[in-house]
Amino acid sequence: MACRGSGVQIPSAPHFKMNISYIKDILRQTKDLIISQFFVAAISLLQVSLVVKILGVEKYGIVTLIVTLPSLVYRSLHSKNSDVTLLTLKEKASVMYSYLFDLLIGTISFFICISILNLPIKNYFGIDEIETYILIFFASKILQTFSESSKAWLISNDSLRKLSLLESLSVAIRFIAVVSLISYSPTVENYIIGQTIYSIFYGISSVLYSVKSIELKKFKMNDFKLYIKNALPHYKSIRLNQIIGLIPQHFDVIIISIVSDFSAVGIYRFAKRLVEPVNYIVAIFNPWLQSKLTKKEVEFNIIKFFNKFLLPVGVTVALFYIILGKYVIELIGSQDFQRSYEPLLILLAGYLTYLLTFWIRQYLLFNNLIIFHTYGRAIYTFSFVVLSLISSPIYGYQGIAWSLTFAMIFQKLFEYFIYKIKISSKSSI
What we know:
Blueprint: H1 20-29, H2 31-78, H3 81-90, H4 95-117, H5 132-144, H6 146-156, H7 160-184, H8 188-209, H9 221-259, H10 262-275, H11 277-294, H12 302-332, H13 341-366, H14 371-395, H15 397-427
Helix pairs in contact: 2-4, 2-7, 2-9, 2-10, 2-11, 3-6, 3-9, 4-5, 4-6, 4-9, 5-8, 6-8, 7-8, 9-10, 9-14, 9-15, 10-13, 11-13, 12-13, 13-15, 14-15
């Protein structure tokens, strides 16, 4: 296994020494991923900047809550379904049945959303009345589910450049649609319509990439039933992992809306959006690290990677937000969002922990210990729920920020402990 003999021990006072040639080599290997993720991050931040300035704090809080409802439902039932499709394609299944599986899950998700709209809890999602544009928005998410099968199909055919183009173009369409509509009329409805256009475009355009592989004439109900039977074991295991981690990711804004108001939701969500670019750094190096660990003939030196690359990157990111955080808030947002600075720094501690330890999940994966990542996410969710229930009524969105950060740290401490006793200690024997 590629990760044998590569146990990492993080020293208490690591020697910070920039190795320029080492960093240049890593950047050279990941340049395509860097360009793609940088474009997505830049467009996303620009969109956030314009949206918060045009809509203002309260309306931004409302649209955040509205978008949260379908995100919760669809992600619970369908997030990372490309992993399921990849496994079924490996077993020579037709991608046509994967799209039908997406359609089935998407339709179920849609009706769950409609059911929630008929319950009193819809008010917690910023929805007072059931409007037509909200129903269309929820329905558009059905089409967006097709993107998971398309993503898997493109990866299986080694078409990563097409995948990058699809994602970049879809983000650009979202930016144009949302900004154009709210510039014309700064309403919640126009923002949601812009998101609807994005979902429809993303779903339909993703199918066009693989349309030649979809042969409806060869459809057989028995084959589709067999596909579902074979896909369900993979689907269930991935659902468990995803659902466990959804509560901290989405319920934070709902809790704030309960204990405070829409403005507080907007302040917190803005802070979270500003710190989320840290995730794009992880998105760059995750596939790169996976590639390294799959090469059995070469052992990857994780100690060197951590000390000479990850640690300098983490310190640089921390200094950027600490020194320029207030300026960035004013530049991207406005004076109304200056209160976002403190929750931003609190959340930064958690996100930096994630950045510095993202490699642990890959080592667990490649040593068939991924179940411990699921346990870690369970600790993450449980910690967040307990801490947020205690802190949010007293400290509001800052309490939620602390709860999320501590939950992330607890998860990563658990995963590092598992790594030490089950991987690092054995590899050093």
